[in-house]
Amino acid sequence: MRNPHPRTLVLAAVSALSLTACALVPPAGTGAAPPGPPAPPEPLPTLAATPTASDTTSATPAPPALPQGWSTGRDAAVDPARTISLTWPVVADAAGLTAAIRGWLGERRTAFEAGFAPNEDAPPTLASSWEATLDSRGGVVGVRENADVFDGATQTVTAVVFHFDRATGTTWRGRDLVAAGQEKPFAEAVVAARQAGGTDVLADLAREEDLQDRLRDALTFDAAGNLVVALRPTELLTYCGDATEAVVPAATADAFLTDAGRTVKAAYLAA
Fold first, then answer.
1. Cα torsion at 76, 80, 83, 89 (round to 10°)?
2. SS3 of the chain: helix, strand, coil, percent, to 5
3. Rounded to 5 degrees, what are φ and ψ at 59?
């Protein structure tokens, strides 16, 4: 992962996951002792507006400042038996980006309300956060939107990266950057990247369409044009491990990209 550029915040996207589906036994042959119970999942980072005076005097570090010209939209339905708290970016010259993200969040909310009834004993929660991944002045802007569902027992995080081209007014989500017919090869490349780092992974999962969709939706690029997919501990692993990322080399990734994908990649390279 590269250091933040003054005009960009490159943060790798994360794919959807269930934080409880994880065996506690390391792969055979490692010689490692079985780890203890996994630590509770850490909340995803959220960009927030500049803190107030009272915030800055607290012991908690101040959140990163918003990119210039950005603000945060909010919607909440607070109920002791079921809570919804959604945030999204508002970019003055990228209305299509905001509309696409709000549309996706609306789908998440509809599915949540249909799937989880209010429960005072174990209240379900839907929350979202967002991160800027790219802000190219006059060019492409990128955002990762995270939707976090807690059903009272387990937590599932889904992330989608959206890009907006200010020059054409076009909005793309992650899956639009990978060409039709390349979904499985792309997922296999992500698996291969994990394996190249010595990680024991569930390679057969690359055949699953749900995983292919999650990985495509959660991709960004680094300064060298490599595809970067950040994964939480349970994604693809045969046992609980540290959060890591898969980096697919640019030379390999180029074969998967659509014209939109090449446009977005060029924006990261130029930032």
1. 30
2. 30, 30, 45
3. -80, -15
The pLDDT tens digits of the residues spanning 147-205 come to 999 998 888 888 899 999 999 999 999 999 999 999 989 988 988 887 776 666 665 65
Residue 43, number of CB atoms within 10 A of its CB: 12
How do residues 208-228 score in pLDDT, each as one tens digit?
A: 777 788 889 989 999 899 998
Residue at token pair 């446009």: 263
Tokens at 211, concatenated: 């995983």
In single-letter form, the type of residue at position 182 comes to Q
> Distance between CA 185 and CA 58 in Å, rounded?
48
Residues 251 and 193: their CA atoms lie apart, in Å, by: 13
Classified as helix, coil or strand, 155 is: strand
Cβ pair 159, 15 in contact under 8 A: yes
Beta strands 125-135 and 83-91 are parallel
Neighbours of 129 (CB within 10 A): 22
Q: What is the dihedral of CA 41, 159, 127, 149, to 10 degrees?
A: -60
Contact, 202 vs 227, CB < 8 A? no
Euclidean distance between CA atoms 63 and 229, whole angstroms: 23
Print the SS3 string covering 96-120.
Answer: HHHHHHHHHHHHHHHHHHHHCCCCC
Chain position carrying tokens 């994360």: 14
